[in-house]
Design goal:
The chain is mainly β. It has eight helices and 25 strands.
Length: 509
């Protein structure tokens, strides 16, 4: 995500000013903007620890500084939903939280559905706090979420079955901890003191069925059937559930581990295994083991030394049906969501003191009385799609070279098959295309390469501009290597170009 979002942000910041808004100054303004462009992937790579660069924008550094009322809203298919329960737990003033099933979209455009009347909900909030109108919003529960029903794994969900549930406070005293101990290959509710060493050294390709880190409601973003990734991991299965079990919050795993390298990552997935064997990812968590005690003060592992670590998984609301099994899958890679460690790693897990705690939510009859959320409304600008560009996600494996290539592309996967849209009211045509390509081998983490190519076009009458970015990323055991290009055109003539070439020392990552 460092490379993808950093590249997208670099492109966004390079867009030209609209001459209908700023007049003839637009060229000078655009050139100044381009000359001061920032290569965000390089900037972020220079801050691999939680230093002052990251702290200054984090409210958790001083929750008490936030004195205004807060209504935090997000979606389970988004990448940022963890922030909502954290805010509710950390803030002391008036606060509310709402999490639906959506990806990184406004809730009135929410996919997966159901979408809601976000604008009406926002109006209720503003009317209460800015106008003094008693809309009833503060009499409602603090935390409302979409409890997701079990679903078979699919690359896209237009709708996500489930129901709205709520807690009057968060953290909620109603949530109970259910502990599953790692016992052999089982998740057991019975405490075991028998220590068994289990080793895992996952192929570097493990994680290809994990979907996008941050979804935008597009086809192919959600995790696929996890059985292939499960086969590359240590797995622990529960007995079939006797009755429905619902969780709300962040599962936390406590593991006794050792590694044979000073730098290692670990990926944990909690899956819902149907009676037929299909494995649906419910939530997951990642940890760079050099950050086991602190994201601020990383420490290398001593090969062979045992450590007791905690790995929180992402917050989730999910309902496991009766007869389904829970599966905890543990791997040493999760590509391409996580960049691999500098060398292949074997992690040894010891059962006996290893377990996972699940936040179980009991049924609450008051959920049936929750105020219905209104239907979506919006006043979006009228647009015309001039040229579609369907999204493709392709995995290629070359057994001769031991290379696996994962490509995400719109249209034909080149810069000519741009998706074009016209905003009718202002006569502006906008085109955008992006290609992401990730390469890696099963054994060698230093075969990892990533590339992001983008083009955005703007046209109105005789005014025609475009911005292109190319970002390439690879690594050696000691360094990250990043190359980036930003090129801007007016009327197909070169207007400005910027290039970056950086070699950044790996810092326990």
């Amino acid at each position: 995500e460092n490379l993808t979002w950093g590249s997208v942000l670099m492109s966004y910041n390079a867009y030209p000013p609209d001459p209908e808004i700023v007049g003839e100054r637009w060229r000078a303004m655009w050139r100044e903007r381009l000359e001061h462009a920032v290569c965000f992937p390089a900037l972020w790579l220079e801050h691999p620890r939680r230093d002052d660069y990251w702290k200054h924008g984090s409210v958790c550094e001083d929750f008490g500084a936030v004195i205004c009322p807060v209504y935090a809203i997000g979606g389970w298919a988004d990448a940022y939903s963890n922030a909502i329960p954290r805010l509710l737990a950390g803030l002391k003033g008036s606060r509310k939280g709402l999490i639906g099933p959506w990806a990184h979209l406004y809730p009135h455009d929410g996919v997966p559905g159901p979408a809601i009347g976000f604008l009406q909900e926002a109006l209720r909030w503003w009317d209460y706090w800015l106008k003094g109108v008693d809309t009833g919003i503060m009499a409602e529960p603090m935390f409302r979420v979409w409890m997701q029903d079990s679903v078979p794994p699919k690359p896209f969900y237009k709708q996500r079955p489930g129901r709205w549930v709520a807690e009057t406070e968060w953290p909620s005293p109603r949530i109970t901890c259910k502990r599953y101990c790692l016992d052999g290959s089982r998740l057991s509710t019975t405490l075991t003191t028998v220590k068994t060493q289990l080793d895992v050294r996952s192929p570097q390709t493990t994680g290809l069925d994990g979907g996008e880190w941050c979804g935008f409601g597009a086809p192919g973003e959600t995790p696929l059937d996890q059985r292939e990734d499960d086969g590359c991991s240590l797995t622990f299965d529960s007995d079939p559930l006797r009755e429905r079990m619902e969780i709300l919050g962040a599962p936390v795993a406590t593991l006794e581990i050792a590694a044979d390298q000073p730098v290692a990552i670990i990926a944990l997935r909690l899956n819902d295994v149907a009676p037929g064997g299909a494995s649906t990812r419910v939530t997951y968590g990642l940890l760079n083991l050099t950050h086991r005690d602190s994201h601020e003060q990383a420490e290398p592992l001593q090969p062979g030394k045992r450590y007791l670590i905690k790995v929180p998984l992402n917050d989730v609301a999910y309902s496991f049906p009766a007869r389904h099994k829970l599966r905890l899958a543990i791997s040493t890679s999760y590509w391409p969501i996580a960049w691999p460690a500098p060398a292949p790693v074997t992690v040894s897990l010891l059962t006996g003191e290893s377990f996972i705690d699940l936040p179980v939510r009991p049924a609450d009859p008051r959920d049936a009385d929750l105020r219905p959320l209104e239907s979506p409304e919006c006043a979006a600008a009228e647009t015309t799609e001039l040229r579609p560009a369907p999204l493709k996600r392709i995995i290629e494996r070359d057994r001769a070279t031991d290379e696996t290539i994962y490509t995400v592309a719109s249209g034909r996967g080149d810069l000519e098959s741009v998706k074009l849209t016209r905003i009718k009211a202002i006569g502006l045509e906008i085109g955008h295309t992006m290609l992401k390509r990730f390469r890696i081998g099963e054994e060698d983490p230093n075969m990892a390469q990533a590339e992001v190519i983008q083009q955005t076009r703007f046209r109105r009458g005789a005014w025609k501009t475009r911005v292109e970015t190319r970002t390439r990323f690879c690594s050696s055991p000691d360094d990250f290597v990043l190359e980036a290009e930003l090129t801007a055109y007016e009327d197909d003539e070169l207007f400005c170009t910027r290039t970056w070439s950086r070699r950044i020392k790996r810092d326990l990552v």
